[in-house]
Design goal:
The chain is α+β, with helices and mostly antiparallel strands. Helix content is about 20%, strand content about 35%. The chain has a domain at about 15-70.
């Protein structure tokens, strides 16, 4: 399978960033389709019931970077139930 990557960078207020994250959370909660508007491009994916979450915080000097990464396979759904793990 070929790789397709869409990246979008934007400067937002903290409140606007919270709205973006809230919209992603709302769509994940209502599932299974996630639709993101990234600038002029719209990306849509089907998200399975179970997925991986990686949270990374980096500090360097006075800069802080918080990365939230969700990943899943677009192959057939897993049949085994995975335990939930709150952050």
């Amino acid at each position: 399978m070929t790789e397709h990557k869409v990246k979008h960078h934007d400067k937002l207020s903290r409140g606007d960033a919270a709205q973006v994250l809230s919209e992603i959370a709302r769509q994940l909660g209502e599932g299974p389709t996630l639709v993101l508007q990234l600038g002029e491009q719209q990306v849509s994916h089907t998200v399975p019931e179970h997925l991986q979450l990686e949270v990374e915080v980096k500090t360097k000097g006075d800069g802080v970077e918080l990365e939230l990464e969700l990943s899943w396979s677009s192959a057939a759904q897993e049949s085994a139930q995975l335990p939930s793990c709150p952050i």
